[in-house]
Amino acid sequence: MGINTKLLHDYPVVDPYTGASSIPKYQTSTFSQQHLSDPDQDFTYTRFGNPTIEALEKAFCSLEDSTYALSYASGMAAISNVLMLLKSGDHIILPIEVYGGTCQFSTCVLPQYGIDVSFVDMSSIEKIEKEITPETKMIYIETPSNPLLKVTDIKKVCDLAKAHDLLVVADNTFMTSLYQQPLKLGVDIVVESITKFINGHSDVLGGLVATNNKDIYEKLQLFQKNFGGILGVEDAWLTLRGMKTLGLRMKQSINNAEQIADFLSTHKNIKTVYYPTLRTHTGSEIHQQQAKSGGAVLSFELVSEDKIDVFLEKLTLPILAVSLGGVESILSHPATMSHACLCDEERAAQGVSNTLFRLSCGIEDAEDLLADLAQALEI
Ligand SMILES: Cc1ncc(COP(=O)(O)O)c(C=O)c1O
């Protein structure tokens, strides 16, 4: 079944209770019980299960090609639940440029539970291997990374992890499983912020976890119930609706990103373009082996800082904001947004300069985005 058909048919799309052709919003916290302890009653309390949320989780299993999937109130709720699989005394290895929220959770929360954390440059397998200790239990990857789209070889990390009996977790938010399938490459757990491409309309916060490992699923199910960070019913419904066009949206956004990356690559006012399928991009060969496209996010540096204000004043279509993956193009300035909490030296070490911008391409017409960028770059 092709992906667009899957997104419309390969999970409960018709309500089993009423026949409604859109799964209704079962906006209820509790469910009336006819008998005490009725084993045939599907739902009792929404934190333990709800028909709208269950339909979405089945849709995630189809999307991710996974046996199990869980939904959460945000990408961070999904990620923090997964990281809490670690126990006191354990050690985890993460990318230096891991998403800011994951970095904060790993540096401010995990150590409180006796969990040791290392950050490494994940473009080098040798560097990852050097960090492994007898206490290491998990390697966490994010590829391509934010905001410089650095590439990690998923299969090589998984081979290394298997040799040391470690779990591998992949944040697949940028590519989604439509364009990169980490579970198929040996990753144990995939996490994604559904706030981004999966819902795609910048109107929901949510997260998902997908795995084929029953033991991990059951532990996470217990955590989900007890930490309580479930996805709200309304947001589950909005995501079910948004997801149906994921294939079409991503195709258009990626097409825009490819054209914009090419256009910016030769522009006199652009110093560097970061986009994983550009021939000049480090790791582009690895990326093309493990992913089906460069995705819809690219970053670029202006030639000088004194051009920033005019560029932003002249640009009309992309909204200036944090986040990515919406139908509208979103321009972010990492130095003052996602990476503002780092000091100048830390930002420099990660390659985040003041002239760096990240563009999440929306589904506007390519010619309009290109014309807008062209006129804004006449500075
Ligand atoms: C790569 C990545 N992972 C995780 C998250 C966290 O997702 P959320 O904001 O839904 O908690 C983000 C948010 O920007 C992200 O970019």
From TrEMBL:
GO terms for molecular function: cysteine-S-conjugate beta-lyase activity; pyridoxal phosphate binding. It comes from the Bacteria. Its cofactor is pyridoxal 5'-phosphate. The modification N6-(pyridoxal phosphate)lysine is found at residue 196. It is an enzyme of class 4 (lyase). Transmembrane segments: none annotated. Its EC number is 4.4.1.13. Keywords: Amino-acid biosynthesis, Lyase, Methionine biosynthesis, Pyridoxal phosphate. GO terms for biological process: methionine biosynthetic process; transsulfuration. InterPro entries: Cys/Met-Metab_PyrdxlP-dep_enz, Cys_met_metab_PP, PyrdxlP-dep_Trfase, PyrdxlP-dep_Trfase_major, PyrdxlP-dep_Trfase_small. One of its GO terms (cellular component) is cytoplasm. It holds the Pfam family Cys_Met_Meta_PP. Belongs to the trans-sulfuration enzymes family. This is cysteine-S-conjugate beta-lyase. It comes from Pseudolactococcus plantarum.
